[in-house]
């Protein structure tokens, strides 16, 4: 049986293909890591804004209850400033204080709201 032999074609060299794949995977890994780090930083900053809102609401509630002197919203604004935030809204209903704060972070505007009052209040 005579086998027909075909002429062998020279394929383009695959030398360096593994390097290209490794560099691509490394680039993707760096990109994903950067996005994940930014997301974690945003979450941490948002938690900081929520802490500022909580402390501002507690300061206002302490003033409403008579534990602190002054005006509730002024004390709330002072507490928010200590946490690098600004009060955007402040209200009280009997002994319950509601405060909203904002902080600009990395070209993002982060906001949070908190309520504080005596134990057992709705």
From TrEMBL:
Keywords assigned: Membrane, Transmembrane, Transmembrane helix
Top-level lineage group: Bacteria
Regions that span the bilayer: 20-45
InterPro entries the record matches: Rv3654c-like
Keyword Transmembrane belongs to the record: yes
NCBIfam families noted in UniProt: tadE_like_DECH
Protein name: Rv3654c family TadE-like protein
